[in-house]
Each structure stands twice: as structure tokens, then as C-alpha cells.
Amino acid sequence: MPDNPNPQGKANLPLLSDLQMWRSNAALPANMPRRTPRTVVVDYLTALLVLSAEFKFRPVLGKKYHLYFRDKQWQLSLVAPAEWRPTREANYLAACRLRPDASWEIEPADGLDQRHDLLAALADFEQQFRNHVQSSDTLAEGLPHYEAHLPYYRRVLASGLASSLQRSLVQLGLEQAKGEQMLLTLKVSDDAASFTAAS
């Protein structure tokens, strides 16, 4: 057994409480537009991008965070690009805000269309997303209801996202929709990932 089997200091009861909170909040709030088939896929893609990033803090609804690509990995930070040295600013992808339905609003950085290294990293991420979606019989089947490998906050937010997207799929009558069929709703561009087209 590891020296500290619970490194983030979370007992089972807080985990269950947080999971229940996000699952019960996962319905779209009244002030948010109802999802379309395309926004289901876009919300899934963008949220997985943020949740693939390294971070160890508890994200707060509506607060602005900053997504970077550095040392071949995504990193979510509290620190804005202007507060870093210029070399770190060059790795800046987007500002991110957590929504009440556990999806993420993403504002791409200015000049992103000229950052071929970041666009290549996004294209790689999108291809991994496509492979994941296509590996499940239905889009709903592959949703991240419980991802044991993720750290605590990312695991809880992924579960909330899965509940939110599942409800949207049911509302749209698409709970049995094939992942490959749902991927057709993404707008694909030769020079940018769907993330930039969707934002």
C-alpha cells in the first residue's frame, strides 16, 4: 500500500458529496441555451481538453483560468499570460470558465491561427477525441462518468460533465446515437482544430 493512499486529502464522504452535487447540477440551467447535437459534441471536446490539463486546485464557477501547452502537456493555471515571462505567454491557448453544467467556455487567445505548434497540439488532441468517440458503440457509452485515473477535481468534474451531456442526449432523443454520426456535427477546417472553429 502507498505511504499516502489519499494524497489530495479527500475522504470518501467529500468525494460522494461533490459527485452528487455535480450530478444534480448537471442539468442545463434555465439561462443557458438548450444543446443541439453539435453543441453536445463541442462541449464534450472542449471540456475534455480542459480536463486533460494538469491542475491541482478546485475550479470555481465563472472564474477565469488560463490554458497553456508546455513541455508537451496541457496545463490549466490561475495565472494570466501577461503575468508570466514572454516565453510562457507564447504557450498560451485560451481563457477558460467553468459553467454550471460542468462544461467549459473557452476564449481562444488572439493570434492563435498563427501558432502552428499549438494548432498541431490541438489537432492531435482532437484526433484522440475522435478515436475515443469512435471506439464506443454510442456517444453516451463513452462519456466519462467515472475516470479512476484522473485526480480528484478532474474526476468529479468529468462525472458532472458526463451527467450533463447524458441528459442533453436524452432530451434530443440521441441516447443511442453512434459516436461517428455525432462527430459529423463538428465543423472541420484544414488549418485549425474544431476547437477554434467551435469557439
Largest beta sheet: what is the strand line-up? 2-1-3-4
Mean pLDDT: 81
Order of helices and strands: HHEEHEEHHHH
Low-confidence stretches: 10-19, 188-194
How large is the radius of gyration? 17 Å
Helix content: 40-55%
What does this structure look like?
With 199 residues, the chain is of the alpha+beta class. The protein is built from 7 helices and 4 strands, in the order H-H-E-E-H-E-E-H-H-H-H. A 4-stranded antiparallel β-sheet has the order 2-1-3-4, with helices on one face. A hairpin with a 2-residue loop joins strand 1 and strand 2 (73-77). Helix 1 (12-24) packs parallel to helix 5 and helix 2 (37-51) packs antiparallel against helix 5.
Considering the chains and any ligands shown, give keywords for the structure:
4-stranded antiparallel beta sheet; globular; 199 residues; single chain; 41% helix; 12% strand
